[in-house]
Write a structure and sequence with these properties.
By secondary structure, this protein is α/β, with parallel strands linked by helices. The longest helix has 24 residues.
Length: 588
């Protein structure tokens, strides 16, 4: 595991962290930044990544494999899709025999039949197992335009490749024959999708789209469960949680990777999906959901993550599906944050070290599920970097999904990461906190000194207890709270340019616990008398530091304007030195 010690040169090196593991992560990011994964075009380097992922899953779980070896099911899903069945014990790991709890042939058949229901064939796929519940990912529902537009009925019934995307053909939507055929086709493909959801015991569906339907050239290319006219998904609990797409993260990059004060413009014409959450969830989190259009990127991501954690801790055995449009930008962002947050609590992947869980989530959640990093980097849409840099915003216990007494049994031993190590790690690389270094610094305000104690753990799930309601929701929709677009008079509150002036000074100058920063005064050096970091905080910060070092040595950050203090380049260069990596492209 990770421990820090001062070097002869006065800097810091990270001992105990295998150089090989850090090099593996750098090599992974380097490959990822240059190519998009395709199941039928696999090199030896990619085969090694696939094998490594299976090894890491095997540390904690017994699993079966959904075969997608040549991309026959989905061209941008892993060739070997892992279906986690249960956590393995020491006895299980010593035993060769694997007692499967699922009919894998039936699951494979459901997958093959349901793939056409969703955009680009990206079917509902389980990726995280938490307390016996499956957390799944997918694309949104395929709309009329996609089903008829790629290559027609032949595509649908012959199981063709989904590698290419063609625009829908012009077919008159008001033709009664077309409408009747559309209804029958949707009944068939969406019926298979629903069967798969039920087989996986998924009840909750969180839709991250900011629109009800994706429209291209005047045609509805994709749709969503929330606007299915036949209400085929009425038995599921649907949550509309609109979140900005990858294009918005160009603004994040252009603001020197600063998310504080960055607010999405909700008044754009295509944005028509309101925030809609069941009352029983919206009332128990102490969040003013009516203000969601005024939240900056930090607060919005934090609150959505709290919501997802609250859902998977509801008092039933139902699973969760998270999706956006294509399922390869916003979807891996929240899947990855969920996996890392639960891991930091010792609730999943308990036997993985920080470098190992980082490798797994980059390789499996992002690369092998088809995220187009080369394209996103070329456009400056740094949603991938945002995900891992954002870990500094969820270190607090208020993001913990498991109750305190359970976390005492975590496999992350005290000897693996000492308090002195943490203090030394945080005492380096300080600059003016109004400079860019404040956004990348490992120092948290909670550890800035005796005047900044860590707040007492907050129970995320306070409120009335949730009674078990079985697997399915009633056919009638549960009480929902919906928030629509703001009044045009409130536009000044939601526009990024105006919000940044007020929100950046407030949200960026305060910690999660309301600690106010003052001007450009440097942070105090932690002393032995200051509050101690939580285990959760130590784990997430270790992951973030390893990521920054690897990213710096491979992709690097591209500042839109030279930083007066050189904060980004200086800090990331020191990260690279700290773990034995050295790159020439830390800043461009």
């Amino acid at each position: 595991m990770m421990a820090a010690s001062p070097s002869a040169a006065g800097g810091f090196t990270v001992s105990g962290l295998s150089v090989r593991k850090s090099e593996q992560i750098a090599d992974l990011i380097d490959l990822f930044s240059k190519t998009q994964y395709r199941a039928k075009e696999v090199s030896p380097r990619v085969e090694a990544i696939e094998k490594r992922c299976l090894e890491l899953f095997d540390r904690d779980y017994k699993y079966s494999i959904i075969s997608n070896y040549s991309g026959e099911v989905c061209g941008h899903y892993p060739r070997q899709i892992v279906f986690l069945e249960y956590e393995s014990t020491e006895v299980d790991r010593d035993r060769d025999r694997f007692e499967s709890t699922v009919q894998i042939s039936k699951l494979q058949d459901l997958v093959s039949r349901s793939k056409m229901a969703r955009c680009r064939g990206r079917f509902v796929c389980p990726v995280i197992l938490y307390n016996g519940k499956h957390i799944c990912r997918s694309a949104t529902l395929a709309g009329w335009g996609e089903l008829y537009g790629r290559t027609g009925y032949n595509y649908i019934f012959s199981g063709g490749s989904d590698d290419t995307w063609t625009e829908p053909e012009e077919v008159p939507e008001d033709d009664p024959a077309v409408r009747n055929g559309e209804s029958q086709l949707f009944d068939k493909v969406r019926g298979h999708d629903i069967k798969l959801l039920r087989y996986l015991s998924v009840r909750y569906i969180c839709d991250l789209m900011v629109e009800n339907k994706k429209v291209k050239f005047g045609l509805n290319v994709t749709s969503s469960e929330k606007v299915d006219k036949a209400q085929r998904y009425a038995d599921f609990t649907l949550l509309s949680v609109p979140y900005p797409g990858c294009e918005f993260f160009k603004d994040y990059k252009d603001r020197d990777y600063t998310a504080e004060g960055l607010v999405f413009n909700w008044n754009q014409d295509f944005v028509d999906a309101p925030l809609t959450i069941p009352a029983r969830f919206s009332q128990n989190l102490n969040i003013d959901w009516t203000r969601y259009q005024s939240w900056d990127l930090v607060e919005q991501t934090q609150n959505y993550l709290k919501l997802l954690l609250h859902i998977i801790n509801s008092d039933d055995d139902s699973g969760l599906l998270v999706h956006c449009i294509s399922g390869w930008d916003r979807t891996p962002l929240f899947v990855s944050l969920l996996r890392l947050s639960l891991w930091a609590d010792g609730a999943v992947h308990a036997n993985l070290e920080p470098a190992e869980i980082l490798y797994l989530t980059i390789a499996y959640d992002w690369f092998l599920f088809g995220h187009m990093l080369p394209d996103r980097l070329s456009k400056g849409e740094e949603i991938f970097f945002f995900c891992f840099n954002f870990l500094k915003h969820i270190v607090s216990e208020k993001f913990s999904a498991v109750r305190k007494q359970r976390r005492k049994n975590s496999h992350f031993k005290d000897s693996d990461f000492t308090v002195e190590d943490l203090c030394r790690l945080r005492s380096r690389d300080r600059g003016s906190i109004t400079s860019l270094s404040s956004d990348f610094s490992l120092i948290t305000e909670e550890l800035a000194g005796a005047s900044c104690p860590i707040a007492d753990p907050v129970d995320l799930f306070s409120g009335q207890p949730q009674a078990s309601s079985g697997r399915k929701a009633p056919a009638s929709s549960p009480p929902m709270v919906s928030w629509c677009k703001q009044n045009p008079l409130d536009e000044t509150l939601s526009h990024p340019a105006n919000e940044a002036k007020s929100s950046s000074s407030s949200s960026s100058n305060q910690s999660d616990h309301g600690v106010t920063r003052s001007g450009s005064s440097p942070l105090a050096v932690p002393t032995r008398g200051c509050s101690l970091p939580s285990e959760r905080q130590a784990r997430l910060e270790a992951v973030r530091e390893i990521f920054l070092a690897a990213y710096s040595s491979t992709v690097g950050l591209r500042s839109s304007a030279p930083s007066p203090s050189g904060a980004i380049s200086g800090l990331l260069e020191q990260f690279a030195r700290g773990v034995g990596l050295r790159g020439s492209n830390a800043i461009v």
